[in-house]
Amino acid sequence: MKKLSILCLLAAFVASCTGSQQTAETNKQEQQPMQEKSAHEKLEFPELDDFQKPEVKTFTTENGIKFFLVEDDELPLINLSANIRTGGVQVPNKKAGLASITGTVIRSGGTKTYPADSLNAMLENNAASIETGIGFTSGRASMDVLKKDFDTLLPVFVDVLTNPAFPKEKIKLAKTQTKSGISRRNDDTQQIGFREFDRLIYGKNSVYGRNTEYATINNISRKDLVNFHDNNFVAENMMIGVVGDFNATEMKQKLRKAFGDIPEGNQNNLDFPEVNYEWESTINFINKSDVNQSFVLIGHLGGMRDNPDYAKIQVMNRVLSGGFSGRLMQVVRTEMGLAYSVFGQYGMNSFYPGNFYAGVMTKSSTTAKAIDAIIKQIERLQNEPITKKELRDTKDQILNSSVFEYDSYEEVLSQQMSYDYRGLPSDAFEQYIEGVKKTTIEDVQNVAQEYLNPENLQILVVGNKDEIGDQLQKYGDVNTIDISIPEPGSGDQKMVKGDAAKGKQLLNKMADAVISPSTDLNTLTVSGEATMQGRKMPMTMTVDYPDAIQQTIEGPTGEVKLNYKGGSGTMVAGGQERPLPPAMAKGLKSTLNKSFVSIALNANEVNPQFLGTEKVEGTTYNKLNVTVDGSNVTLLLDRETNYPDIIRYKQFNPQAGSQITIENRNSNWKVVDGVAYPYSQVTMQNGNKASSVTYKSHEVNK
């Protein structure tokens, strides 16, 4: 029956289509003005319910906290959020990162009453969450909780907000996580581009363009966190919003009681320095050798949110770069085929000027062509009025998307608090929408002429120097930007002086002991088993001297392959290949250069100095210092074999954010084809055992 019904429906559908086609032909021949409605035109839909914007009730406690309340009984949930008048802008450059770390440890460290582990367990058992953080212009805290648990957890939230314990181990963890982020900040092309473009616009030493560095994190102490919190987390700097299933009158009483004892303190007057921007045309380049595309940003300083022309400028911005309908997408991507991704923004901030940029990701070979195309579209906005269709489509795009501005009661509350914090009127969004509606074709051209400056564009390109070639020279003298990450202590080592003659004699003996004078070493392959953190992992490594490494490790989650050559490389894990992070590539190169084999191969270039003898665990060694990449490397040579049984040097550790002492202890030496290699190696870091390797074989030139 079911099969028969389907066949009948299919037959009816075909007949209907045929009949419709015949009717259409007949109507066309008879030129009848009326057409029968199609099936989709006959469909009827009920009218959509209007979103009823809720009332936001406000009150202020005697100690200065302003509260915003929105009742919503749809679900038995309550969300509490706090805005704190503070931010990274208050932090001096030498301690950049303090605000962010403080915001993290307020929550992660718990309080004396509710230590971190107890706090985590309590929240998990009650399906609740408490989060804190501090950004550049504000601090924040929030609590999501079931209605039935609100009275229990409200005092917990207040305690976290006002009495953080700041335990040292949690501060150390937060600093380590921040340093880990610093070590990876040059991995992603877009992250590099946007970061360095901000530094071009605002100045690399300004609070708006500065970087958080290892040194600035190392400068931060527990006392700094305590003082930053105590000076800022006071009542005068707080505004609290609550939305959810509650009665406003009862909630006011609970909030007055919970927050009433917070010290009033002094309200912050956040100081946002003036931007000393120089209008000029520049071309700037960052070399990233592991990519085959260019990431380009073109622009200049933007504006402020309270500009009366805000709506007109945003309409202009949408015409230029408003997604798939914007000119950049239509021309640069669709018509010219120069990019998959092209974008832009005219930034207008509340506390300091934003920036204007247009950007593109394009093939290395079409970098200049894409730049020219973007500049042409910026100039076109000034020189030609936009079309009526462009204005209509842009307004529709803005107005249609505006329905999502208040798609929940939480959004209404958040927006209202944001406007209050930034000093904007409560109807700022409504004013913006009205401004969009009133914007004319002439308005768009006028603001383009006033606020865009195509004669003074700063161009930043992140790409592969070898593939881009000389394309950028047409824009002027190319400024190459150095994005290397400063390593504290890397320049602190002084040249060690000793007996140079005896040092050279001993180093030559070591070189001959490690590599027979009759052996022309080009490639060395070793295989064995590494032990790290109690895990044993089979490994194979091939070194093509002077600067290529291929390494395979059988890790806990599968095979990992590393390939390094001449400054860059790749890592294959889980069947996926990705570029080797620059920090890892640099570490591999440094380790290779400081290995005893590389030192033996470069014996004439390392300035050996004999420093006498040193006794280690009952054995006396000849002590030799050599200089590798500007760093001191100590070799402790066996007085009979001249093998380097101990190698000691300092190396930067991104996790620690400082120089650490590496000591490799070599034993069980074996000779194959004229090359000696230790079949047992133990690596120490700052005196603690970090890893060990037991080798099974080594091969020469194979």
UniProtKB/TrEMBL annotation:
Family annotation (Pfam families): Peptidase_M16, Peptidase_M16_C
Superkingdom, natural source: Bacteria
InterPro entries linked to this entry: Metalloenz_LuxS/M16 (IPR011249), MPP/UQCRC_Complex (IPR050361), Pept_M16_N (IPR011765), Peptidase_M16_C (IPR007863)
Annotated ranges, domain Peptidase M16 N-terminal: 83-193
Gene Ontology MF terms in the entry: metal ion binding
Signal peptide coordinates: 1-23
Domain Peptidase M16 C-terminal: 219-397
Keyword terms, alphabetized: Signal
Protein known as: Putative Zn-dependent peptidase
